[in-house]
Amino acid sequence: MFDLPTIWAGLLALAIFIYVILDGFDLGIGIIFPFLDSDDDRALAMNSVAPVWDGNETWLVLGGGGLLAAFPLAYAVVMPALYGPFIVMILALVFRGVAFEFRWRDVAHQKIWDRSFNFGSLVATFMQGIVLGAFVQGIEVDGRAYGGGWWDWLTPFTVTCGVALTFGYALLGSTWLLMKTSDGLREKAYVLARRCGAATLVFVGIVSAWTPFLSPEIADRWFTYPHLLVVAPVPVLTALLAALLGWGLVKRRDYIPFPAAIGLFGLCFAGLGVSISPYIVPRAITIHEAAAPDSSLAFMLVGALVLLPLILAYTAYSYWVFRGKVDPEAGYH
Amino acid sequence: MLETFDATLLARAQFAFTISFHIIFPAFSIGLASYLMVLEGLWLRTGNETYLRLFKFWMKIFAVAFGMGVVSGIVMSYQFGTNWSVFSDKAGPVIGPLMAYEVLTAFFLEAGFLGVMLFGMGRVSKRLHFFATVMVAFGTLLSATWILAVNSWMQTPAGYAINEVGQFVPADWLAIIFNPSFPYRLVHMVLAAYLTTAFVVGAVGALHLLRDKTNADARKMFSMAMWMAALVAPLQIFAGDLHGLNTLEHQPIKVAAMEGHWERQAGAPLILFALPDQDAEQNHAEISVPGLSALILTHEWDGVTPGLKDVAKDKRPPVAIVFWSFRIMVAVGMLMLLVGAVSLLLRWRHRLYDTRWFHRAAILTGPAGFVAVLAGWVTTEVGRQPYTVYGLLTTQDSIAPVGAPAVAASLLAFVVVYFALFGAGTYYILRMMNKAPDDDTPMLHAPMRAAGTTPAAAIDPETIPAKQEADRDV
User: Fold this and answer.
1) Is the ipTM of this complex over 0.90?
2) Which residue in A159, B177, B213, B299 has the most C-beta neighbors within 10 A?
3) Looking at the partner chain, which of B81, B101, B109 has a beta carbon nearest the beta carbon of A79?
4) Which of A80, A98, A308 sits opposite B425 (nearest CB)?
5) What is the pTM of this model?
6) Residue A107 lies in a domain
């Protein structure tokens, strides 16, 4: 049951989930950036993630590198299949990433770098949603390579996933700001969080209802007995967390909505797992078919078991150093 | 749809372009991270405020360079899959875990402690802040170690087996990591990074010395940089020679291309200038020194050295590129050696800080390291052709099933975006370098700056509130 490929699938899933949460909130800040009221607020919002963003983005590198290392066949199939969205996503991340430093170095052109930050975040997020949607919808495989066309990833379903993830990240970003800021910016964040929260829930509903119709195999996972018993708690818990999120936003509890939003992402992620396992390229290649030999997986596992807890520890430490509301006057620039 | 050949050529152009842009930033930030560590360590040890000013000056430049290195590096980690998926499938079980270790040991370490290093002064103790700086520096070196293990394995593969579906699979991890060319390549590259940084720091020091030769910060950084040039340049030439001998043993055809030798021969001449002709299998307009190549490569006047004709025509790398990029690298290396030697002479005569022509020369040689690093990588990477995994997997057989239009479109996008964004970043770095470390006048008006407060230059970040920090460091 818990052989090396399964363990690695679990570890990779964990890495991707951590990425989605961590880079989710800082990409979310970029998405809601133009809706903030003043330049000071925008600077403050950006500074709330400046010390941590590149650590957050490192989980994406682990996701890509880990997939190559543990499941080289899946990497070799998925990357060409999603060529367009991946290239656009990494270019968008370049625009987003350089803005953190550049906007302070060239105030005459700060508006340009703010746009670069905003569009970069928005486009990268939308493309990640497309990737997710295209992945769930299925990838055509021919032998050991991608067998479909160049635009297979562009469908109404994938676009819906892109919009859903955009609202989801905006929710993470705005609820993050509740915890990190005060006064006018926090008020604005409450307004944005309520709107993004509502939109996220609507889109999660649409994507969840749509997914089983993509293939009978997925429908079977969700709607037939005894699977039904196992998966039934997912929608129920989702409803409970949605209620908690709403309560936190209405009652203005700064520290409730962000964890609630993470919980919602967690349940969506679990639901995704139900829909696609045991495949790593849905309905074409299983985890075991794509896995690197045990000698590769074991060699990496030794390192991962030692290093991942260490990484989590010093990442947590870094967050601890920058805990609390952001000081509007702090920075090194 | 065009032929596969065109897609391969475009994908190679794309990889060459993105990796060349990328390597510029790590080559600089590996050295700069270590320099920051030394500066902060010296400040803590001596209390000399010059070191702190230099630390803060270079830290801001480091932040911009590092950021560009991170984002251009993400491109690399996905490009293996988008353009070279067959290579990824086949070599993934061997090189994938090494890259995963790079992420786990190095990238997280750098990124995790970078935030503390950049934003943490005043929030954490001096010791912890120094620890963060050390971890960032250590991370850059670890990163270089793993990625050079990967590259070296592709050059001199070892410790592998081939399974039933044609994948390289690991047989002996120690043999894979410590493959024959790895120790040489690692030393050569780390020294190159240190030299590159030394020449950049030296140029910036020289610039500020030209403006004010009494400037203590400029004198300090110029002196430190010139010590590095004088000590590391000869060391690098020695390391490069060892690396070359290792290449001769494991990739003789690459050395033949570097030397421009078509025939296997005893007592081969050292060719100083030539126009290698791949089709005619000979050199035009050759200028050479008899016997010298044999002496350098075999340490004997009549030693036998390999020739390109030892292998079939389609197994040879593009000779002219390898031949010339190697010469550029060596020439720049010799120039660096000369700068280092002259600095020793001037230092001995107590003229290091007031010899203006030498300061101008130091400014001109500021980018020398980047030229040498790029030329060196072109030599070793083009010299590996036509293989991705040397002797085992050809470049032609590594390409993803991508169409030429898709690769051409993404190549164009990379070129436009990289020149625009990294061009802007380089301009900002140059602008920061242009401002003296002790110049407190705000270069820009940052919006975080509180109105009307311009505190005098306070030095110890632990004794002043964070607010003043922000103001002073604008």
Assistant:
1) no
2) B177
3) B81
4) A98
5) 0.85
6) yes
